[in-house]
């Protein structure tokens, strides 16, 4: 399996846009727990005081006067295998926690937060470790189990601006076996394996649920200049590992929100394993701010797809609708990463 060079290139499984939620915290006296999974970088307005003190874009607890630690539980937007976490203490300088730890658990169904906190079996992802203030503290995770929830602990108290949980989605196989599905969706287990250009935004956005609300919710590349070698001989592209092997019946190339910077045309190819790429959708003109849906006839099993855009520009979403093959069902049941 192709691995990104940096775990931060993987999707954030805790992202609100993916359905993540902060379901419980033992304390949020100064700043609410929901800020932990907000999109974008943390903001700060100096000397902005509310009735609880300085307003922080993060989760902040009161000062402890007795032994103990503060905890928050995050339900991942989709269960998955975690490769790294970021505990971002941006703007917390004199009030960040000296140490943090992160644990994970895998629970079925939708139990209430107290049940998860009290009865779940928690596994260590990041042991109790010192962190710095006003920095995105990055931690690699070696535990390759599947997790549905994570628990962030601050020792003993303080403030954290954001928690990012990067990895590969691993949904319930029963959900994927129910019928046709988007084989390229992050929530179904797809992920980006390679990309020509990350200049403005991440290609992972292409695989997120729902419709883009702005250009920032999509994938946008740098400009290639007309007449240059990069214009005439090259184009931008992204490669995606599908959730599981399947056959494709429709592809969707969505340029919503991209008006004057959408690609002139697009092409989709597929392959099975490490085999040669074959054409699924030939190079086809694309319109700005348009959801393009193309039925395709593809009986051959596909494990990966490649989207080429000509010559550059922005796309909001890529959908690859199809059915799992017998091999796809086997892969899901086998629990391969």
TrEMBL record:
It comes from Hoyosella rhizosphaerae. One of its GO terms (biological process) is allantoin catabolic process. Pathway: Nitrogen metabolism; (S)-allantoin degradation; (S)-ureidoglycolate from allantoate (aminidohydrolase route): step 1/1. The keyword Transmembrane helix does not apply. It catalyses: allantoate + H2O = (S)-ureidoglycolate + urea. HAMAP family: Allantoicase. It comes from the Bacteria. Belongs to the allantoicase family. Coiled coil: none annotated. This is Probable allantoicase. It is an enzyme of class 3 (hydrolase). GO terms for molecular function: allantoicase activity. PANTHER family: ALLANTOICASE (PTHR12045), INACTIVE ALLANTOICASE-RELATED (PTHR12045:SF3). Its EC number is 3.5.3.4. Residues 19-168, 189-324 form the Allantoicase domain. Keywords: Hydrolase, Purine metabolism. InterPro entries: Allantoicase (IPR005164), Allantoicase_dom (IPR015908), Galactose-bd-like_sf (IPR008979). Pfam families: Allantoicase.
